Amino acid sequence: MSAAMTYQAGFMENSVAARAQRLDCFLEREAEAQKDWEKDQLRELPFRWARAAKKWHSIKTKELGIQAANMWLMETSNKWKEAEIPLNAGLDECKALAIEQANKMFHLAAIATDVAQLRRFQAESCARYGVEPPDSAFSDDAAITAMTDWEWWQARLKRAAARRFECVARELGFVNVTAGLYCSNETYDRHITQRKRNRKMMEETILANENGDEFSLADLSDVSNANPSHRRSGLMVQIRGMADYAKEYGHAPLFAVVTCPSRMHVFKIDQATGKAIPNARFDRTTPRAAQDYLQGLWQRIRAMFDREGICFYGMRTTEANHDGTPHWNLLLFVPPEQLERAKEIIHSYALADSPNEPGAQKRRVRFEDIDPRRGDAVSYIAKYIAKGTDAAGLTDGLFGDDAATAAQRLRAWASTHGIRQFQFFGSPPVGLWREMRRIPESCLDGAPAGFAEAWQAAQKQGSDRADFCRFWKAIGGKVKRVKDYLLKLDKRDADGQDRYGKALPAETAGLEWKPSGDVFESVRHAWEVVSRWGVRVASPWTRVNNCTRTNSVRSENDSFDEKSKVFSLPDCKKRKGSNPSAPAGMPPNQNRMIEASSHGYQTA
User: Fold this and answer.
1) I need a labelling partner for 68 at 20 to 30 A (CA). Which of 257, 291, 333, 443 fits?
2) Looking at residue 538, what is its pLDDT?
């Protein structure tokens, strides 16, 4: 080899080495810059969150590349840094911010000259904090008044902060089968603490009605649908009535589970280990947005049912997957000849979005045949009703957890995200059913036979449970529109305004039997706080609040005040409760507060 060739080879070797060295230096500087940038992004996050974000960033770097991973980390960090409400804001922080915002709105209102423009500006301020401004039902004056009230702000800021916190916690991996089922541990703890605080307040708050009866607010809550057991009982009565109606008319049950596309799920479950695995397709869809997706999907399915003349009725329950993503359990009843077509419609619409993604055909929508050996249609849905209420009859959850705790976490999830857990369709509005249970028996004298039949069906009498199927048939059976039922609520305009100057909504006073025009008044009580935290705040007054019954016959035991034109019902037995001043002697298997037949409070 000549000297020239040797020199050229050495030169090229040195050049390659130099370039490699410069590249190594560049990559080292880039790596150091990347580390410094990551530290800066994670600096203001709580330690637990920062550790989770760093882990997620590493996973996304391997699966999606450094650029996509950096974008995710920056967006996550900015949610904390740029949040108008601190994501970990407590009651004191929310109250202070609420007072600050209300004062700002008040000062703006004091100097503004254009009311409509002021309302728009205030609404924009609400949007910055994730607070929904007053809707179109509010006049401009009422809306502006609401947005200058710190209590109005406080309630909505608490809700917005809780939702934002939970959404970020979900993205960082704190909501899944291994970390926190359905919701993060922080949200669950906050929910339990809030319930305990509310319970203590209700036990220390005593109310009196127009008859002079006093009860704690906790007692009244226990006999209402706020009690998960009562809520479950009421739901079961309705769906049992639907199943009985379907059996009588030969309609077939259809049970389906509808889930969201993969991109809305934060985690998957490793079938081999049962552990949560990050889902690289996740697009930051919130649980509330996923619920809106399912609502829109159901609206399209119902529209197609209507176009094809498919008769259906039933209910749906909404529950969370382990990572907080909602899914629906649908129980429908349809004529047998329409069953297969109904399944085809549900399947086609459920798979219209991302039909080719892995697992879509298997998991997006799943139909279950009702096996009579395992129980009827109600047995299939009962488990999901119990999971969303009081876990009655359940021992273990889906993932081996305690059923009662899982039910509490599920309620915390629904409460935080504002998700409605249960909904019926195709049957009479539950308001008609509940109002009928408030109608006193004395109103039946001279009442039309159809109304009397509906009343008898709605009452729980001794060992005989209320019969929703019988009630449904008595008021017209399956109809296409609510206005076609033979029964409707009797509403009357309310006098006065609320604290913001908004007109009070019409009040329900009873029921109207449309064929005859007869109006039957329900029993309601006017309540006044007389004691709070052991301190008497007012003297209980006595005043009858029942409206005049129209076209009904008085009982000989009813008293009548000619001046007020108001009926007062005879005295009823009362029950013994936690409130020492509450009347005692309530018979077993009856409403715990006041005798059901007279005062309209019933359990199923």
Assistant:
1) 291
2) 52
